[in-house]
Amino acid sequence: SDWLYSDIVQEHFMNPKNVLDVPEDEFSPDGRGLVGNVQCGDQMLVVIKVENDMIIDCRWKTYGCASAIASTSMLSEAVKGMHIKDAYKITPDQIVERLGGLPEHKIHCSVLGDKALRAAIEDYLKRTGREGEIEKQAAKVVCNCLNITEQDIESMVRD
Ligand code: FES
Q1: How would DSSP label each residue in the chain?
Q2: Which residues form the NIF system FeS cluster assembly NifU N-terminal domain (predicted)?
Q3: 99-137: per-residue pLDDT in tens?
Q4: What is the reported pTM?
């Protein structure tokens, strides 16, 4: 079809999964990540509940766009029941693939949930005195055709 967005993206946008619909205190997260997207200025909050290093719940809230909503909805489904170390390794392009693609200029939006999730996992480790246990990832390639990494996007904005 001529739609810019795949059916899966539309479905996740219309019926987003795991939105944080209670006050954060009530959810009482074991880890919390709040990040901004330097390219568009949007924000994302991801909170997780963890048991024996397994993510048992993952909720999120964003001021981001439809692509950010769909990506994070998909991501939040994918990481439930996953070990924190495996969840940390998920890349935005894996999520984009599961969504059946995103328009090129929207790829950066898929980075938002991913970044917030990693921040939440890092926060969980910090709270449990295990900071640095997961090796920080090198900058990820977020756009394969242009070979753009998160770091590039950040430095573009800074320059
Ligand atoms: Fe900001 Fe998509 S335009 S997250």
Answers
A1: ---SS-HHHHHHHHS-SSB--S-HHHH--SEEEEEE-TTT--EEEEEEEEETTEEEEEEEEES--HHHHHHHHHHHHHHTT-BHHHHHH--HHHHHHHTT---GGGGGGHHHHHHHHHHHHHHHHHHTT-TT-SPPPPPPEEETTTTEEHHHHHHHHH-
A2: 5-129
A3: 999 998 898 899 999 999 999 999 999 999 999 888 876
A4: 0.85
